Amino acid sequence: MDGIRKWCDHELELVEVVVDQAIDLIKPIASVKKLSLTLILAPDLPVYAVGNEKRLIQTILNIAGNAVKFRKKGYISVVVSIAKPESLRDCRPTECYPVSSEGYFFLRVQVKDTGCGINPHNIPLIFTKFAQPRSGSN
Known about the structure:
Elements: E1 10-13, H1 14-32, E2 36-41, E3 48-51, H2 53-70, E4 75-82, E5 107-113
Helix pairs in contact: 1-2
């Protein structure tokens, strides 16, 4: 094995398969820590989409899992919705703006919790490989 993975796009069920699978993996840990974990799905969320199921589950697990990992008490909510075109320019370098086209949409997964949050200057680092803000920053 040479360490290269092939990620394939295919039709997937957004709610039942992807989102529920990811959240169901996190629920037991949140329960043990006595954290309230809520999933909120936008009413206009499509049932089916074409995409990479494993990558999407991995992304949701990473962001929601970190919220559970770093919380000792309180709540965590995961909100899944369609990203509105005006919100697609948030926190991205100029060369990375996605362009909407007919039949495509961008899925927005937001994790909110009772933690201290992330300093605005650290937001561009969130999805940078191996980058992590220093401990103790807001």
